[in-house]
Amino acid sequence: MRRTRILMGMPITVDVVASVDGAVVDSVFAYFERVDRRFSTYIAESEIQAINRGELTSAQYSDEMREVLALAKQTKSETDGFFDIRLAQGPIDPSGIVKGWAILNAARIIIDLGARDFFIDAGGDIQSSGRNAAGSHWSVGIRSPFNAHEIVKVVYPRGRGVATSGTYVRGQHIYDPHAPGRLINEIVSLTVIGPDVLEADRFATGAFAMGRAGIHFLERTPGLEGYVVDTSGHATLTSGFGAYCEP
């Protein structure tokens, strides 16, 4: 059962390989809708907007908000401050971590409902489990940052998470907290494979903010592999990334 919907401002595809009731996929999309209502910086009534307007004290934050903000604080520490949800102009925007967190929770919903073979793709960040309908490992195509119709690399995550950060779709939306006015223009795309999609997502954002140094950070960090494309189209891989390119 495969369905795609536009939620959280992006296409989300859920593919469950099992004779499951449609309620399984419905439950996943309902969860993403709840996440959007809580964390969207575009919905005036969202909790994150209320926080940014100063209408809520920390004691009034939801448990989900506390969890995400704690993860953001942890990631900031682990990336030497290159991941920071507080924008230069003051408000907080947790979107750099919410997507991976929500995808991982959606995967847990599917597992709890009895399915083991599935694939979730939310705006290019992916969590898969088991095998596809053909009995093969799920594959993920990394798109060229210069041509949306070209796949430059295919990886087989085998249950690990995949996340990509870049400026080629949304422009300069990622910034270096240590130099907020500096454009990150030496690289255009960075893909991370991590133990799960949350780990991949949060470190993809932080590593991209590092610019060229990001791939070296990934090389040094246990459990993470990376693939970065610079403005000239040259790709650099971490030493273990190639292991995920074999079916």
Give a structural overview.
The protein is an alpha+beta fold and 247 residues long. The chain folds into two domains: 123 residues, T-fold; 112 residues, T-fold (Roll), CATH 3.10.520. 31% of the residues lie in helices and 22% in strands. The chain contains six helices and ten strands. The strands form two sheets. Strands 1-2-3-4-7-8-9-10 form an eight-stranded antiparallel sheet. The protein has a two-stranded antiparallel sheet with strand order 5-6. α4 packs antiparallel against α5. The radius of gyration is 18 Å and the shape is globular. It starts with a strand and ends in a 10-residue tail after the last strand. The mean pLDDT is 93.
Output the CATH class name of the largest domain.
Alpha Beta
- The total beta strand count reads 10
Superfamily (CATH H level) name of the largest domain: ApbE-like domains
Structural category is alpha+beta
Q: Quickly give the CATH architecture of the largest domain.
A: Roll
Total count of domains: 2
> What is the mean predicted local confidence, pLDDT?
93
Query: Which spans of ≥5 residues are poorly predicted at pLDDT below 50?
Result: none
CATH topology annotation of the largest domain:
T-fold
Which percent bin holds the helix content? 25-40%
Major sheet characteristics: 8 strands, antiparallel
Total DSSP helices: 6
Strand content: 15-25%
Radius of gyration: 18 Å
Query: Which overall shape is indicated by the principal axes computed on the Cα atoms?
Result: globular
Task: Encode the helix/strand succession as letters.
Answer: EEHHHHEEEEEEHHEE
